[in-house]
Design brief:
With 291 residues, this protein is an alpha/beta fold. It folds into 2 domains: 109 residues, Rossmann fold, CATH 3.40.50; 149 residues, L-2-Hydroxyisocaproate Dehydrogenase, Chain A, domain 2. 37% of the residues lie in helices and 20% in strands. The strands form 4 sheets. A 6-stranded parallel beta sheet has the order 3-2-1-4-5-6, with helices on both faces. A hairpin with a 3-residue loop joins strand 8 and strand 9. The radius of gyration is 19 Å and the shape is globular. The model has no long low-confidence stretch (mean pLDDT 91).
Length: 291
């Protein structure tokens, strides 16, 4: 029986575990808190709380907990979230601390995809590929999908409708250098440009910086969707952070539409952009490469 591992028992890690549990599409979710006490009390407590809600939320996913990073080996996908307790409680893994966890994970034998659930994974994702030599296809950041969901909700509100009927893509480097592919955006099966005037679309783009960073529950919902697609090998398409692998921007971490499966990133898709949007995308990649 396979499982999804979540490294980090902070607010984000707990929210991801709960989101995966209530979606009830994976047999086991393993919550790992390597920064906590040796017994993993925080992770065990959160896993137990979520498991005890199963009769109310009607899910069969099994929640387990551990304190050792080695417990993540064998997972279909490992989600890197945030630490619990102490001075670092509630902070997403990044910098040397995050890189040390990735090194431990790889040294223990994990060879599958790693999903970075936080809003600021850029430096850690780049270092994971460049220094730990994790395959580019195995490093995925799900935060852009959370931003995309928030923007879809605003578009639905502007149309006096629902976000469910809206389709759009957010690429580039959120928040300041995010590029919305308005050219291919649609609602109710019609081009969005035919439903909203240009000044309203420009106003929606201007609101993107205020939507960043997404909160723990939005980030968790996005991470859960991407992790499930990777785990099941569904080849679904999402807007996610990836480490660019072409030309002079090899270290650039940018949001692009990707197709994911059990091997991580299967294919990077080309969004349909106007000339102005494409220029914005190229500028975002250049800035990301200089980080």
């Amino acid at each position: 029986m396979g499982f999804i591992a979540i490294v980090g028992g902070g607010p984000l890690g707990g929210a991801v575990a709960h989101a995966l549990a209530v979606r009830d599409r994976v047999p086991e979710v393993r919550l790992i808190d390597p920064a906590g006490d040796p017994a993993g009390a925080v992770a065990r407590g959160k896993a137990l709380d979520i498991q005890q809600s199963s009769p109310i939320d009607t899910f069969t996913t099994r929640l387990t907990a551990a304190a050792s990073i080695q417990s993540a080996v064998g997972a279909g996908v490992v989600i890197l979230a945030d630490a619990a307790g102490g001075a670092d409680g509630g902070n997403e893994y990044g910098g040397e601390r995050g890189l040390a966890l990735v090194r431990q994970l790889v040294a223990a034998g994990h060879r599958g995809p790693i999903l970075f659930a936080g809003a600021q994974p850029h430096d850690l994702m780049a270092a994971t590929v460049a220094e730990v030599h994790v395959a580019r296809a195995h490093a995925i950041g799900s935060a852009p999908l959370a931003l995309e969901s928030a923007l879809r909700a605003l578009v639905g509100l502007a149309l006096d409708g629902s976000a469910v009927d809206v389709s759009l893509r957010v690429v580039g480097v959120p928040p300041r250098h995010a590029v919305v592919a308005w050219e291919e955006a649609s609602a109710h099966g019609q081009p969005l440009a035919a439903l909203l005037p240009a000044h309203e679309i420009a106003g929606l783009s201007a609101r993107i910086p205020g939507l960043w960073p997404p909160g723990p529950y939005a980030l968790a919902a996005a991470a859960a969707r991407v992790a499930e697609a990777v785990y099941h090998g569904s080849r679904r398409t999402f807007s996610c952070f990836v480490v660019a692998d072409a030309g002079p921007v090899r270290a650039a971490v940018v949001s692009v539409p990707i197709e994911v499966g059990s091997r991580g990133v299967i294919r990077v898709l080309e969004p349909s952009l106007t000339r102005q949007e494409r220029t914005g995308m190229e500028n975002a990649i250049e800035r990301a490469a200089r980080r």
